[in-house]
Protein: SPRY domain containing 3
Organism: Sander lucioperca
Amino acid sequence: QCYQGNSEEVGCYVAGHPLSKGNCYFEVTIVDTGVRGTIAVGLVPKFYRLDHQPGWLPYSVAYHADNGKLYNGNPVGQQFGPKCARNDRIGCGIHSENIGAGLTTVFFTKNGKEVGSVEIPASAEGLFPAVGMHSMGEEVKVDLQAEWFLEEDDSMMMVDSHEDDWGRLYDVRVSGTLLEYVGKGKSIMDVGLAQARQPLTTRCHYYEVEIVDAGEKCYIALGLARRDYPRNRHPGWSRGSVAYHADDGKIFHGSGVGDAFGPRCFKGDLMGCGIMFPRDYILDGEGDVDDWDRLEVRPGHAGVQNILYLNDEEEEEEDGEEVEQGQEGRKVTVFFTRNGKLMGRREMGVPPGGLYPTVGMLSSGEKVKVDLHPLSG
């Protein structure tokens, strides 16, 4: 749904069917907040005036995204919950109907968590899902089939628990291990970025991404980046990062220009990224790390001399990178895999705070499954 009005008038969408026992909840995802973000989500009676926001007129109720207020049959709202912005999901449903008292309990959620509830007069013809908008550029997605589970539901808890794995999420929606790009996908500034909460360590030095849906262009990148990596840059494009890009099989290392590296990746491919830590990084005798060590890094200092396939031009770029990150000056070897096979590796300096698993997406429909601990299972 897009707002097409002239900002003087409200635009209101009302669903064709009221909420019922079998279908007692719906959700609205804010695609764009437009000029003012005056988006309202709620329930209205059957013949509601479409030039009024839901919640303004009697027998209607709505949660307004721009101020987090609840409007309950009144053009003056009351403080209710947090404000909502782009990519937030606002849900609305009916908990129970107390027919005797003629009341219906309506509850609202933000991103799957309940914000609060309110009792409103029951309406004989039912209450209809409604979305109101009131400024240019506002756009929402309405899901009338959405489901909502109470917190006790184990499956929901499982799904929720993975959000904690991610320290930063921009234009990416998480459900369980699935990451979904929800950005605009129109320009190179519309990067969707997911960065893990924890950096790779000797204990947990590798992660994998499966391409579930390549979307329009398969602009999917996986790699490692510094903690304060810019949100609108694909991993690999800016300093303190390195990434393997699925659409062209290139490796990008702190530069918008990539180098030929491996094959392109498609739906169903499993891409992996990890670090081979030099001997002196290892804090424990973990089997996996030792295996990689024996494979790649010679004891002592030789590991650093070991990888001489960089050409001169890249070496210069590397030096520049090290100057910027000179606080630690520690180097590690980052490696990438595709479907279990080693694609290649790249040496890089470790920025302060470490290197964080970072996934970028940039065209609509892209979905990936991420396993941040594939070796622990």
Observations:
- The helical segments are 154-161, 287-296, 302-305, 312-324.
